[in-house]
């Protein structure tokens, strides 16, 4: 039965379709503009897909929004966007989020961060350059999976495996 579920919901254990779907997403002109603006800003700058768009690709759902994470601080994100004539607004600057707009499509770009203090819902953050540190503060391990434009997954807390285990438990409880 597990093998059947793998084929039905995940196609295969190695998730090759995820890699392919991320590469297809990256073919969009608007997505390329964002990736080029950030990745070419400096020799150390990098941007990756994160959160809902990765989760939706793994679930084989339609990607209707694109969330990105970067090792640039918010002011540098703005500089990169201005340099590339990309419109934006500061949607959550205190938490490091800038929303870029290309052809009416919005891209939330958030700086890597770590929690300084939190009450469980709201956090005071400090910006970081450490991907694993950023991943450790995310609400679910499935939301701590990053991918570059070439479909390479960065899954520091094994979110794919934990997500599958949770799904199988839920499936068997509902039977």
Word description of this protein:
The protein has a single domain (17-173), classed as Beta Polymerase, domain 2 (2-Layer Sandwich), CATH 3.30.460. The longest helix is centred in the C-terminal third of the chain and has 15 residues, at 159-173. Residues 1-13 and 167-175 have low confidence and may be disordered. It has helices spanning 2-10, 16-25, 29-39, 52-58, 74-83, 131-136, 159-173; strands spanning 47-50, 66-70, 87-92, 97-102, 105-111, 113-118, 123-127, 146-147, 153-154. The chain has 175 residues and is α+β, with helices and mostly antiparallel strands. A seven-stranded mixed beta sheet has the order 3-4-5-2-1-8-9. It has a two-stranded antiparallel sheet with strand order 6-7.
């Amino acid at each position: 039965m597990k093998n059947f579920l793998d084929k039905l919901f995940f196609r295969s254990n190695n998730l090759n379709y995820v890699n392919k779907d991320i590469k297809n997403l990256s073919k969009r002109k608007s997505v390329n503009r964002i990736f080029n603006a950030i990745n070419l800003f400096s020799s150390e700058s990098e941007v990756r897909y994160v959160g809902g768009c990765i989760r939706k690709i793994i679930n084989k759902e339609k990607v209707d929004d694109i969330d990105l994470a970067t090792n640039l601080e918010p002011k540098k994100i703005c500089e990169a966007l201005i340099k590339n004539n990309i419109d934006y607004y500061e949607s959550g600057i205190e938490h490091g989020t800038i929303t870029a707009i290309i052809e009416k499509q919005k891209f939330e770009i958030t700086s890597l961060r770590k929690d300084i203090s939190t009450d469980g819902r709201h956090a005071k953050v400090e910006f970081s350059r450490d991907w694993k540190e950023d991943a450790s503060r995310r609400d679910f391990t499935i939301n701590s999976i990053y991918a570059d434009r070439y479909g390479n997954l960065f899954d520091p807390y094994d979110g794919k495996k934990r997500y599958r285990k949770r799904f199988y438990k839920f499936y068997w409880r509902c039977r």
